[in-house]
């Protein structure tokens, strides 16, 4: 069947028709057994051939440039092998349709290079079996969080006005985008499950099945966020106690009915006992008790429960410096290692707080060796510019995935999967900011290979989004994207202290916005210094949650990396950082530098006007003006705040209000 064409006015993101020219202009043979995913591959190639003059057929014998060879629909095997003789065709061989589909998209990344020279056999397989995207989409428009919680690209592509959108073409085009970067699972509703969303599990499961049908065509399994209180909310039971026999029976029967209509259903995502969501604590049970109940219901069908580890006290007394939100996930879950079922995955945010522009890697990831873990990243830019600012996160994510919590094993090898909070909505550019598409693509590629060079991944995205682009455009896109994360860090919260954002919507600066709130997000700035003492010797003890190789580093301000020093230490403004500057001068310098870097990026983008499609260029140019305005506001508020606290003037005599 032919691939989907996005609805009129929807940007094709990194798969414009020209990206298929290397395939569509050649003779292709598809060999082996068929199946839905093989039919998808055939449709993709056939559409490309119709555009660019090539041919595609089934079977063998004829002279050809490309052979796509599949043995059958062998389970969930996603691997493929690429080989090319110097005087023969390029061949992609897979044991099943998923592998063949991945092989097809790999050929697109290689472009013309896939048909040149000699390729020794290369076996490609994903390093992580689970590569998932979580949508925080509400079915109804929430009075506070709107249609998509922390969504910055318009409304949901799945739901509108309390019902399913019934736009299969759009969903199928989206599935294609996800498959193109290696994502193989998606959750279609918010982890904060409200009354309407709860019913997706039962009487509205048909709406989920319609979405699953579109994702299935590209090898993506559909998951559903559920409320732990479903037996009460939906089943009329008096309890949701995970050890209650009637509750367990209810979940078993509800799950069976889900698989009756979605045979390849992936499983459940659960946020429990966190930020007001119900959970097992109400019954004196543990997180393992709650997760294992759902795992037992899913196990007969091959499903998985994703139990989120984002659990902390959000009613904290700001006067109490012994309570530390950063400690919470470790304190809750490390003692439960080995108690979770084999089909339960603990979903852990990459840092201990909440997707800040700079955090240490969560010690939870290294503390549960007998528990399956997935690392959660936030592709939607809640605290990194909300898709109004250019902030390519590939370098940050790569640093997390390469970090060695035990001094030896990278995080990317400790996890079973990578989960991203989606940045997609019904905006014509999918991600609101056209350049935010690079974050979604990069997430998928790092989930496939956590050790990949993120800058090389950025090269791929640029080449696929702008096939045949002149060198000036390629270098210009690199200039505005690579390094944008560090620029954002410079003009926002300094030295790992985090937050300093407007309460509620989290956009723009408010240095004391959460300082006296119950949320546990403090910087403790006073006239003498700033930062949180998280040492074992005199502070909250958080530093001691790490293996000794890092606990010792973080315990001392002399050895703690500058970029995290205020996360672990309360320091005087005159404290000399390892980089040679004082804390206060570093704050001043980086905030001025950050604004200068955004100004330079804006000017670089302006110089690309004649090389980029006009409406896309105009959209990005407009957003750059907002980014520059916001960066100046961050600079002036943060610098003025700390000048007034410290009384220390800028060494360079620049204007601070």
Describe this structure in words.
The protein is of the alpha/beta class. Among the domains are: 17-124, Chitobiase, domain 2 (2-Layer Sandwich); 130-313 and 335-350 and 410-430 and 442-465, TIM Barrel (Alpha-Beta Barrel). The chain has helices at 21-24, 36-52, 97-110, 168-180, 195-198, 205-216, 230-233, 245-261, 287-298, 328-333, 394-402, 411-414, 437-448, 454-465, 471-481, 484-491, 548-555, 565-568, 583-606, 614-646; strands at 27-32, 55-58, 66-70, 80-84, 90-94, 119-124, 130-134, 137-142, 146-148, 159-160, 163-164, 185-187, 221-225, 267-270, 304-308, 344-349, 372-378, 417-421, 529-530, 571-572. Strand 1, helix 2 and strand 2 (55-58) form a beta-alpha-beta unit. Helix 2 packs parallel to helix 3 and helix 15 (471-481) packs antiparallel against helix 19. The protein is globular and about 80 Å long.
Give structural attributes.
Glyco_hydro_67_cat; 657 residues; alpha/beta; globular; TIM Barrel; hydrolase; 20 helices; Hex-like_dom2; Alpha-glucuronidase; Chitobiase, domain 2
């Amino acid at each position: 069947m032919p691939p989907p064409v996005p609805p009129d006015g929807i940007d094709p993101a990194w798969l414009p028709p020209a990206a298929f020219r290397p395939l569509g202009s050649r003779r292709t043979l598809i060999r082996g057994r068929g199946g839905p995913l093989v039919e998808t591959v055939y449709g993709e190639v056939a559409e490309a051939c119709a555009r660019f003059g090539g041919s595609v057929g089934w079977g063998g014998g004829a002279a050809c440039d490309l052979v796509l060879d599949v043995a059958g629909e062998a389970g969930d095997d996603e691997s493929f092998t690429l080989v090319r003789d110097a005087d023969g065709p390029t061949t992609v061989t897979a044991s099943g349709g998923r592998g063949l589909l991945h092989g097809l998209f790999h050929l697109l990344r290689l472009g013309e290079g896939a048909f040149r020279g000699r390729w020794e056999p290369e076996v490609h397989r994903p390093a992580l079996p689970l590569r998932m995207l979580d949508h925080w989409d509400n079915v109804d428009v929430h009075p506070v969080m709107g249609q998509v919680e922390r969504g910055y690209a318009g409304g949901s592509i799945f739901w509108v006005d309390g019902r399913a959108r019934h736009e299969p073409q759009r969903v199928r085009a989206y599935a294609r985008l996800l498959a193109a970067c290696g994502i193989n699972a998606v959750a279609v509703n918010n982890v904060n499950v409200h009354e309407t969303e709860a019913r997706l599990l039962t009487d509205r499961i048909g709406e989920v099945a319609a979405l699953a049908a579109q994702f299935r065509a590209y090898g993506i399994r559909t998951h559903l966020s559920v409320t732990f209180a479903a037996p009460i909310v939906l089943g009329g039971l008096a309890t949701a106690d995970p050890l209650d026999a009637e509750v367990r029976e209810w979940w078993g029967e509800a799950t069976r009915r889900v698989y009756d209509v979605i045979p390849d259903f992936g499983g459940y995502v659960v946020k429990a006992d966190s930020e007001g969501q119900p959970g097992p604590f109400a019954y004196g049970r543990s997180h393992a008790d709650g997760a294992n109940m759902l795992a037992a219901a899913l196990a007969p069908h091959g499903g998985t429960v994703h139990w989120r580890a984002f659990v902390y006290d959000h009613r904290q007394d700001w006067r109490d410096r012994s309570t530390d939100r950063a400690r919470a996930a470790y304190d809750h879950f490390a003692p439960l290692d080995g108690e979770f079922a084999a089909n339960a995955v603990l979903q852990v945010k990459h840092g201990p707080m909440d997707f800040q522009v700079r955090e240490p890697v969560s010690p939870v990831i290294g503390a549960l060796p007998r528990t399956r873990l997935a690392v959660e990243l936030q592709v939607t830019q809640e605290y990194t510019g909300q898709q109004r600012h250019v902030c390519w996160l590939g370098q940050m994510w790569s640093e997390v995935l390469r970090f060695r919590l035990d001094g030896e094993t990278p995080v990317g090898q400790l996890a079973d999967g990578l989960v991203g909070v989606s940045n997609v909505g019904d905006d014509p550019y999918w991600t609101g900011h056209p350049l935010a598409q690079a974050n979604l693509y990069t997430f998928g590629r790092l989930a496939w290979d956590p050790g990949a060079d993120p800058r090389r991944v950025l090269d791929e995205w640029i080449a696929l989004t702008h096939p045949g682009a002149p060198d000036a455009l390629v270098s210009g896109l690199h200039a505005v994207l690579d390094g944008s994360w560090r620029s954002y860090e410079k003009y926002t919260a300094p030295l790992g202290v985090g937050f300093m954002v407007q309460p509620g919507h989290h956009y723009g600066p408010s240095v004391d916005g959460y300082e006296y709130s119950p949320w546990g997000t403090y910087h403790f700035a006073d006239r003498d210094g700033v930062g949180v003492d998280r040492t074992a010797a005199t502070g909250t003890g958080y530093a001691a949650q790490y293996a000794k190789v890092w606990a010792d580093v973080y315990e001392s301000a002399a050895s703690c990396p500058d970029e995290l020093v205020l996360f672990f230490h309360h320091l005087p403004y005159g404290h000399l950082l390892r980089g040679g500057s004082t804390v206060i001068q570093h704050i001043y310098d980086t905030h001025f530098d950050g604004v200068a870097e955004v100004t330079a990026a804006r000017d670089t983008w302006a110089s690309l006007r004649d090389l980029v499609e006009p409406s896309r260029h105009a959209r990005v140019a407009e957003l750059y003006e907002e980014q520059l305005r916001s960066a100046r506001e961050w600079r002036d508020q943060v610098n003025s705040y700390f000048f007034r606290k410290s009384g220390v003037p800028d060494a360079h005599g620049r204007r601070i209000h």
